[in-house]
Amino acid sequence: xxxxIGVEELKTKNLWIAVLAEFHGCMLFLxxxxxxxLGWGSSDVSANxxxxxxxxxxxxxxxxxxxxxxxxxxLNPAVTLGTxxxxxxxxxxxxxxxxxxxxxxxxxxxxxxACTPESARGGFGVTSLGKDVxxxxxxxxxxxxxxxxxxxxxxxxxxxxxxxxxxxxLGIGVMILVAHVCLIPFTGCGINPARAFGPSVIxxxxxxxWIYWIGPFLGAILAAxxxxxxxxxxxxxxxxxxxxxxxxxxxx
Length: 252
Hints:
single chain; 252 residues; mainly alpha; Glycerol uptake facilitator protein
């Protein structure tokens, strides 16, 4: 695991196009996230956690497929932090990605707010703790499920795997779906600071908001460290195995 500051990247057009892709992707993602969670006047949330999970999971799979070849399709500051810690992208690229993601999340939330009748806004997808869930419990769950997500992302995008792009993005979407089905009743399922921040800014609600930043970021750091140092198989190990099993025709 090695870190690159990435100063030289600042002069490249590709970096800024990638940052724009993260902004644009998160803007579209938040439009989907908030839309599927709207109450439409009958309750705070019209859909159940399974329906919301399907909508959000398929949205992230589609958008990651759309922007993956441009920026990697992170669309999540926690995922970006994990890739920085794992040494897959530079520090400055990661920082710019996070800025783009957060601004995109706010923009997407603002767009859907303007397009939604006041009577249907309800909780507007703002993440909040479920009934009787303590901040400590919420923090632990946000950390744990973000750990699952970032570990999975690092694994399925490992260059030693030959997973097809559709398989990669669909797999990530399924992981997001599972997280939402499990976590919505507890915390509303953040596991993405940009997703939590956008609706909170628009609605001006920041109760226990620290949970949705510190938990995911710490989970991402732990996932990256564990994957790289425990489960990440060095490329040279695979190559050396192939080289030490020659075909011996004389003994065949």
